[in-house]
Structure formats: structure tokens, C-alpha cells
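Q: Two folds, back to back.
A: First:
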Amino acid sequence: MTARAPARATAEHTGTDPGEPSTAEIVVRGVTKTFTRRGGADVPAVDDLDLDIGHGEFLVLLGPSGCGKTTLLRCLAGLETPSRGEITIGGRAVFRAGRGARVDVAPEARPVSMMFQSYALWPHMTALANVAYPLENRRGGRREARAAADRALALVGVPELAEQYPGQMSGGQQQRIALARALVAGQDVVLFDEPLSNVDAKVRDQLRFELLALQRRLGFTAVYVTHDQHEAMSLATRIAVLHAGRIEQLGTPEEIYNRPASGYVARFVGVSNELTGQALDPTTVQTDIGEVTARVPTALVGHPVLLASRPERWRIVTGTPDEPNTWPATVDLAVFVGSRSEYMLGVGDGTRLAVWDSGATSHTTGSRCRVTIDPADVRVLPVDEGADEGSSWS
């Protein structure tokens, strides 16, 4: 089958309408950031992107390395200068190029705070001095700045670290100091550049929930960059999945996971069983394992399609149940991982499917079984560049 490039996300998938005025906290319109490679080729890291971020929202920019998520965050902060477009924060234009008078507000003058991946703590300053520094730099009031820093340290639960230096702290403690510094200025918008990536898994889970509780209590707007899908799902009000500098899909975690707009989204956000085939009619797709019953969008009838489904939606059954979408299978691999059993099944001539069951392992490697899925749990999508011919387990 011939793969085709994924279509640019529509207003339905991005949640924005560039033609309408917006009252959102952050408004991005037509922003492009182009880098020039050695040899002179121009590469758009952010490509004509539109995005609205609401007051008090926790928006996560999700995607692999090179998708443009960090570049977009740095454009919001003023650390990168877009090639064109417009950015408005809190009703104030902080960048505009391409029409009218050019605007480019300096990073320190933008109504945002930022927390970096490296934490960027001054090693020669105590925790209190690190947190107070942004206020002292802006206002010059040392006593007021130190009092605000004390409150911020208490807010993130580490007032006892006030007189310690970064080299005397654990990674988790440094992360909290950096968060206190981001919060101390009282800005309505806080930008996060993968702030938990350097923390071990147990501390990361704890800090993630603490950060979310703080954001909900204080009500600031958060824009958070990560490549970790679990982190995105647990934090976000909405997730923007980026691909090649554009938003592939924008939606709630439930929408992104259960109703992916493309094979790219299904593949990146969670594990996806994939089959390619030909849509025969509004309810039938012919694939390598036979006919699959699913709801086929009208525009895809008669065309090559990608079928995407989640492993936990499949069921291993015994006997010969009279259900649609049921096939004989062989258990190629069975693994118990604590919270579930994971199986890899062989179906048909070389097709492999992942199946997750919440119980203990009850099917052994090499055993025969039947596998089934409800037609409502099969997502029918256009074939895109990221889809392999045939089927895959990713």
C-alpha cells in the first residue's frame, strides 16, 4: 500500500480557530521558527502553529525529540525569536512579526516564569537566595524578596533548606527549590521544560502529584514540555501532541488516548496494535487477518486505512464464541508485570498482537486460544507516513 503524509491538524483537532478573536491566557497565531542547517537548508522547528491556552489550564506539549515542543516553549519565554507570527500572553502582545509594527518583548519583561530541565540554580547561593533572586533583580527590595522566598519555600514543602546550597541537596530537593523560584514572582503563567527528567522514578511520581496539587491550588496557567506519555497523561488538562513542528492533535488525555486523530498519535501515546487494510464499506475493513468490523468514516470508505487499537481492549477467550472480530491465535509470549499480564499473540500469517489482561498469567507460551475485540474499540484512521505496511506491535 502507498503511505501518504499525515494531514495538518484541523481546527477540530487543535481546538483553535485562527479567524476568531481569543480571550485565552496565551494565544499563538501562525508562529514559525526556522533554523538554518549547515549547508544553507532552512528547517522549520515550529511550522505555522496556532494554539490557545486557557486561564488556569495545565497544557502539556508532548512529542519525541525534534518535534518542536521545546522550541515552542522557548518562543513563549522569549528565549527564541520566531521567524514570524504572533504571541499574546495575558492580553498583551509579547511577539509580533510579519504584519504591522514588530513587537519582541524581552524575556525578563514577559509575564511568565520558567523552570528549566537543569534547574539552573546558582551553586554559590543558598536556596533562599536562589529563590529570592528573581524578585531582587526586578524590584530591588531585598527584605520583601526574602520574605516572599520564605513563603515560596514553605509552599513547596522545604523551608528547612533555606540556608543550604544546591551541592548539599538531593536532586528532588533541587527540583523543589527551582519550582519555588518559578512560583515566587507570582506570575499567572509558568513554563516547565522537562523539569522531572533528572529525578529518579519514585521521587518523580511524588513530585508530579505535588506539582499538580500546587497548580490547582494556586490557579496559575502551566505549559509543560515532556516526551513522557505517562507524565503527560497524569498532569494535563489538555495535551498537544506535536509532530514536525505542528500540532497533530490537541485534546484531553482521554481523547488523545481513546480517540487518536492519526496513527502517529496512536503510536506515540501508549502501545498500539496496528493493522493496515482496505475499507470495503462503512463497517468492514479487509486486513491480513481477515475482515475486521469497525466504524469506518465515510471519507475513508474505498481507501487504504490504518486500524489502531489498545492492548487492554483485546480479550483472550476460550471456545468458539459467536462474536465479530474473533480469531484463532497462538500465545507467543506471556509475561506477568505486577499490575497485569502481557501477552504477545500470533494471529493469521505472521501478524502479532499485544493483549493486556488485568489478572494473573493464565495462558502459557505456545498454547492455543482465540482473541477478540469489540468493534467500538477499533479506531479507523488514514494511512500515514509512520505506519508500516501490514501490521505492527509498537
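A: Second:
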Amino acid sequence: MKKHMITSILVIALCICMCQSANSKAAPIRLNQKNITLKKGCKCTLKIKGAKNGKSVKWTSSNKKIACVNKNGVVTAKKKGCVTVTARLKNKKLCCKITVNPNKTLHTDAPCATQCPASDVNPGCSSIPDVPKVTQPPKVTQAPAVQSPSDVLPNISDRFPSLNIPGLNLWIPNVTQRPSATQAPAASSKPSDNSSSSVTEERAYQILNSLRSTYPEGMYLTNSYYYYSPCFGNGYGCYGFAAKLSDTVFGVNTPCSTHTSFDKIKVGDNIRIGNSHSVIVLTKNDTAITVVEGNYNSSVHWDRTITKTSLAKDGFKVTTRY
């Protein structure tokens, strides 16, 4: 009788072990998500199903500038684009496609995270500024070409033959490198109070060029930059920066008027392009202008050339103070 009972117990135990083995084979190791869409600044936590998330898991992103992932599988969206986040567990490699789309507030798959503010950033990822929904950054498709002094100075001398600025020939723009600035320039509450009657195009050009050291090429400036102008009102990013430069050149009390004629554009004019980006005119010829602008690839940029054809295609409005 005892032998039969022992035998029965062993048979039952063997059956339990076989069932557990079968169940483990039926649940393969996988990620809880394969395809996620996130808004810039939001986060999502990836988890491994069928295995414990531990120190043995190594998380990587194919492009940390678009979306980064920390050691706990928390993904943070940083800018528009697509990346692949990979989890390596022993000999197993699991992948999830992450799409960062500014127009989406939540990802499209099953629940993985909730909507979060842009300032809610995970450890292990660089900070993302809280961007006010006031203006939109320019739609840049190509990096600007580096101009040599010979490309820039002839336009200046043709435009202002009598203008002599000491040291100007020594300045060479460099758009391939960016200073390690971590804060946007502070907006001054008291810009120069120039009189509109005393400001000529030559004088406007001199004042703007004197600001190159205050707002150097590549200085970090995004939509978190704010400035109020009596002429332009409340402004963020490129709009606020252009308003600040206009007030600095012409004075806060100088009135504004608008037009849409390329032929009437003058140095120092504020141009709104496509109702999405603002620039200040540095030089002008019959076919193009050069400008200074903020929030161009998240920074200050000098001497970009914009053609008359491009302005006509995108649409523009000029605010002048002459």
C-alpha cells in the first residue's frame, strides 16, 4: 500500500514538472511593445515579458538624439524621428520601434505610459526644455553652407561702400561647431532707445554686427527664450529674439508698419516667413537677403542667405521701423 502511494505521488510530481515545462515553452521572451509613437518630451517604459527585468538586461537606442533609454527601459522622446530601442538579454535581442511625432500626444499601441509634460525627464537622459506653444521652429531641411569672408564681404561693401568696421575682415562664420552654452540669453528689459530718425541702414548694420559677441554663432536659443516688445507684443523663440534685436536697433518707442514687398526691404527689418519663423535683415541685394535669427537648429545663427524666390514661395510679411 505504501509503495502504491509513493508511486502515485511521484507520478503526480512528474506531471506537474512536465506541465510547468510546457507552460514555460508556451510563453516566449518578448517586449511588451513593438511599435510606439511618442510626443517630444514624453516617456514610455518598456518591459520584458517572460523574463525578469534585471541588471542582466542592456538597453540601447540607435539614435540618442531622437530618443534615449535608461538602464530601466524608460524611453524619453527628444526630437522628431524614428529609432530602434534594443534590449539584450544573454543571447536574446528584443527590438521596439520608437517614432517621435510632435503632433501625437500619446503612443498608438496598448497602454505603456501616460501623457507627460515636456519637463518630466528620466534619469540618464539629457534635459528637454519646456517649450511654450506660441511659435513654431523653422522647417530646416539642410544644414547651412559655411560661408567664407569672400562670400560675405563683397555683399557688404556693395551695399555700404563707405562703411568701415575695424576687425570685420577677421570674422569667419563657423556653423559646424556650437559653444557649450547651457542657457538661453537673458532678455534685457531696457533695450537701446534709439530715435528712428537717426537710424540709417548703415547704422542699423553697425548695431547688429556689434551684437555678434553678445549673441555668438551657435548660442543655445529655443522657444524657451521670451521677450516682450511694445511693437511686437509677447514673443518666444525666434519671434522674441527678432523683436529684441529690432528694439535694440531702433528703440522700443519707434512705431512699426508692415508691407509684403521684397523691393522695400531694408537692413534691420523684421521678416516673418511663412508665419512660422522670424529673422532680422543684415544685408540685401536684388535677389537675396542675409539674416540673423534665433531658434535655428535650437541656436543663434548669423549670415544665412535667403533668396527672393524662396521668400515668395513661403510667403512673408515685413515689419519695418523706418
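Q: And?
A: Residues 2-26 form the longest helix (25 residues).
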